[in-house]
Amino acid sequence: MLSKELIPFNYKPTLTHYFQKLLVSKNKVLKIYTQNIDNLELMSGIAEDKIIHAHGSFENGHCLECKMKYSLEWMKEKLDKENFLKCEQDDCSGGLVKPDIVFFGENLPDEFLNYKKDFLQCDCLIVMGTSLKVVPFSKLPYSVKLDCPKLLINRDLVGEWELYVNDMEKNYRFVAELGDCLKLKMKLV
C-alpha cells in the first residue's frame, strides 16, 4: 500500500532549489542529477529537461497493468479518499497505480543510465547535500574528465573529497565548502 506520507503534499522548494534555478537561468547548468523524488526542482521553476531524477519522481504515476499515466494531482486527490490508487481506464481491470519512483530492487530510469554523455561534457561539477553512499549515484563524480573542477557544498566531506581535498600533492581539482548548505549557497550567490 502506498503511504500518503510519501507523496509530497505540502513541501516547498528551499533556497537550495532556487540557487539551482539561478544557475540554470544563467546557463551554467547542463543537467541537475538528483536522488530526490519530491519534485521540488520542478516546483522552483527549473525546466523538466534540465532535471534527471535518479530515483524517479512523484510528478506522474502509471498503472502497473495498462501503463496509463496519472498526474500527481490525481494521485493526491484519490489518496484523500482511498487507500489504494486504482486505474480508471475503461479497458483496464483496475490495476494498481504506482508513482513513477524507484523502489529498492527496481531498475533506475533510462534517462539516468545515460549520464556518461552529460558528464563528459561537464566543465565544472557541483555536488550538494549528499552522503554519496548509494551506488550508482556515488560513482557520478568519477565520470567527469580528469581536469574538471569539482565543488562540494555539503556538511561533510564525502566520496572523492574525503581522499583528496586535504592532500595538496594528490588534489587535482577538488574544492569543498563545508557547513550549512543554505548559508554556503547564499555566500556563493
UniProtKB/TrEMBL annotation:
Binding site for Zn(2+): 63, 66, 87, 92
GO annotations of cellular component type: nucleus
Keyword Transferase attached: yes
Coiled coil: none
Active site: 55 (proton acceptor)
InterPro entries in UniProt: DHS-like_NAD/FAD-binding_dom, NAD-dep_sirtuin_deacylases, Sirtuin, Ssirtuin_cat_dom
Catalytic activity: N(6)-hexadecanoyl-L-lysyl-[protein] + NAD(+) + H2O = 2''-O-hexadecanoyl-ADP-D-ribose + nicotinamide + L-lysyl-[protein]; N(6)-tetradecanoyl-L-lysyl-[protein] + NAD(+) + H2O = 2''-O-tetradecanoyl-ADP-D-ribose + nicotinamide + L-lysyl-[protein]
Keywords: Metal-binding, NAD, Transferase, Zinc
Residue stretches making up the Deacetylase sirtuin-type domain: 1-189
GO molecular function terms noted in the UniProt entry: histone deacetylase activity, NAD-dependent; metal ion binding; NAD+ binding
Pfam families according to UniProt: SIR2
Protein's UniProt keywords contain NAD: yes
Domain of life: Eukaryota
Protein name from the UniProt record: Deacetylase sirtuin-type domain-containing protein
